[in-house]
Amino acid sequence: MKKALFLVVLVAVMVGLTSNVMAETVTVEYWNLFGGGDAEFMDEIVAEFNASHEDIEVDVTRLEWGEYYTKLKTATASGNGPDIAISHVTRVKELADEGLIVPLDELGENVGIDWTEYNTNILSGAEINGEIFAVPFDTHPLVYYYNKDLLAEADLLAEDGTPKMEGSFKDFLEKLKSDSSAKYPMTNWTKLTEEGHYRVWWSLYSQLDGSPVISGDEVTLDKAKAVEAINYMKDLYDKEYSPLHSEYMENVNLFRNGEAASLLTGVWITGTLEATEDLNFGVVPMPQIFDNRSVWADSHTLVIPYSRNVDQEKREAALTFAKWATDNGHLWAVAGHIPSKDTIKEKEEFVNMPYRMDYVKAADYVSFDSAGSYTWSIRTEITTALSKVWNNQITAEEAVDQAVTGIERLLSR
Amino acid sequence: MKFYNQLSDRYPFLKALPFLLPFAIVYFIFLIFPIFRGFWMSLHRWTMIRNMGFVGLDNYLYMIKDPAFWESLGNTLMFVILSTPTIVIGGLVLALLANQKIKGQLFLKIAFFLPYVLSVAVISSIMVYFFQPHSGLLNGILQSYFGVEETIFWLGEANLAWFVIVFATLWWTVGFNMVLYLAALQDIPESFYEAAEVDGATKLQQLLYITLPSLKPITWVVTLLQIIFSFKIFSQVWLITGGGPGTETRPIVQYIYETSFKQNSMGYGAAMAFAFFIILVIVSMIQIYLRNRKEV
């Protein structure tokens, strides 16, 4: 009995001692939603940060992509949220409206964040009613990858290794189809129920200067422009420039094994393509089809979830990490993403990386589709309507009407 | 302690109480309480994190007028109608096959049952790889060896998508029904068949007049379980077709999930979930009623 008591005391003393030591370093609980290659690069960034900061320990928790926001929101609301978390820029308004994240203007200045260093286009997505709610970390627009060997077969490769697009984009694809050995001139993610279509549609709609889908509680979709964008895409599929119904990895693999001559997808796939043997590829920003160069994109940002007991020291430590991670954006660019700070784009480490400089300008063209709490639902409504057009069930006009009716129903709930 | 003993002598249920309590508490917290909580939520406008105010039966009125609710409920019913007979009969046929006194009988049993131990994520990935249009296994085989020219969009057309979903579920879960049937087959006394053989009954007659009638009770159990499993359809559809094309294979559970967690409307999601719960209670009551009548 005495022995047991002695042990208990010993353990208690040890716990007491260790927690004293711990008190000197601030532990920052950090949640993210990365998977695959992204996750590994992020872990390396955290490891490097921890190694270079003795007083701060960032503790990463990686959550499943599909469940991420459900968990982040419910945990934060019940007071068990992390100290810092990744959020897509298109989710920031929703989180801010719900009061789940805190404004960062002042906090940022305390740790020396200079907001003017960030790409203004990306930063504007994180700004709500004049207050900044998120530290932009990257942006990942759609870009256009092409197989140099297959383009050369059709005499569509310029001397500097870029695609020769003299006529329209469809002329280019037509020539690629007839004169190259590729089975498909292009591929994009066309599984009917997935967002792939929507991303291309949003890019085209934005290139036509389309208005936001909703403003406040009102649907403000520009129907004529929406129809024009749909008809353009319908033609791409009807002429078999891009195969319909392809699963995500399937469409990437069609490009990797040379069956498709080009690939329209997000920058995140650069790392995967680089690791593909015998693939001689290049990349440019998404081609301009209509009036301007807009392109669908989203951004990863770092946000500070609301907590009842404000621990200033912890928040500053968390933002120190955010600042450090964005200051060292070239580490993250390895995954393919475009860094959020314009200053990184001059860093040697970044400039020397292949491919990244070819699409870095796309950051200036990105167009975010954030519609507050409705963003997700609107994407789903439009994706569903689009898929019915591809399946020849309804016309483009009917699809737009159906999407509008669906969105109005959402707003009335 | 003495007091408790005296008391429990008078009220015998007190003796049972400590044994029942642990289960009862868990059952209450995880089953009974959520039912009432869900009903309570369905009477409010409720986002993922907070109660936005009482709205009475508005969510239910919205539901009745919501075409997406009826479509997804119809899809779930469609799946029940398609899958229940297929998987029940499939289980019976496989059990009869595996029950033959032939070589490799053990191998058959294992082969039929094996997919059941896989998780839904695994079988769904296999199915997507098998049925995807441009580099899928099935289209590859059809195009290379059977001279099929066009690309068949297994997941892109409603009828084919239904076929894929039912096929995937059949392959995945039929082993469970087979095991239940196998157990029942072992219970039929060998003497029945011997007597039939002496009387000159053919194998077919033995099957029709001995085997099948003896399997009637287990068929009720299997059908009952299958109908309830089928009503709960969600994961394999979510992972294979995503409810598509469009929303043509989207089951009610998926719609409830999307509404509650993706569209941030827990109140409306709860209303639909509660309505679905009532439907299931009615279905179960009909089944129990029919079975009791049979037994009488």
TrEMBL record, chain A:
<keyword id="KW-0732">Signal</keyword>
<feature type="signal peptide">
    <location>
        <begin position="1"/>
        <end position="23"/>
    </location>
</feature>
<dbReference type="InterPro" id="IPR050490">
    <property type="entry name" value="Bact_solute-bd_prot1"/>
</dbReference>
<dbReference type="InterPro" id="IPR006059">
    <property type="entry name" value="SBP"/>
</dbReference>
<dbReference type="Pfam" id="PF01547">
    <property type="entry name" value="SBP_bac_1"/>
</dbReference>
<protein>
    <submittedName>
        <fullName>Carbohydrate ABC transporter substrate-binding protein (CUT1 family)</fullName>
    </submittedName>
</protein>
UniProtKB/TrEMBL annotation, chain B:
<dbReference type="GO" id="GO:0005886">
    <property type="term" value="C:plasma membrane"/>
</dbReference>
<dbReference type="InterPro" id="IPR035906">
    <property type="entry name" value="MetI-like_sf"/>
</dbReference>
<keyword id="KW-1003">Cell membrane</keyword>
<comment type="similarity">
    <text>Belongs to the binding-protein-dependent transport system permease family.</text>
</comment>
<dbReference type="Pfam" id="PF00528">
    <property type="entry name" value="BPD_transp_1"/>
</dbReference>
<dbReference type="GO" id="GO:0055085">
    <property type="term" value="P:transmembrane transport"/>
</dbReference>
<feature type="transmembrane region" description="Helical">
    <location>
        <begin position="218"/>
        <end position="240"/>
    </location>
</feature>
<keyword id="KW-0812">Transmembrane</keyword>
<feature type="transmembrane region" description="Helical">
    <location>
        <begin position="160"/>
        <end position="183"/>
    </location>
</feature>
<keyword id="KW-0813">Transport</keyword>
<dbReference type="InterPro" id="IPR051393">
    <property type="entry name" value="ABC_transporter_permease"/>
</dbReference>
<protein>
    <submittedName>
        <fullName>Carbohydrate ABC transporter membrane protein 1 (CUT1 family)</fullName>
    </submittedName>
</protein>
<feature type="domain" description="ABC transmembrane type-1">
    <location>
        <begin position="73"/>
        <end position="289"/>
    </location>
</feature>
<dbReference type="InterPro" id="IPR000515">
    <property type="entry name" value="MetI-like"/>
</dbReference>
<feature type="transmembrane region" description="Helical">
    <location>
        <begin position="110"/>
        <end position="131"/>
    </location>
</feature>
<keyword id="KW-1133">Transmembrane helix</keyword>
<feature type="transmembrane region" description="Helical">
    <location>
        <begin position="268"/>
        <end position="290"/>
    </location>
</feature>
<keyword id="KW-0472">Membrane</keyword>
<feature type="transmembrane region" description="Helical">
    <location>
        <begin position="76"/>
        <end position="98"/>
    </location>
</feature>
<feature type="transmembrane region" description="Helical">
    <location>
        <begin position="16"/>
        <end position="36"/>
    </location>
</feature>
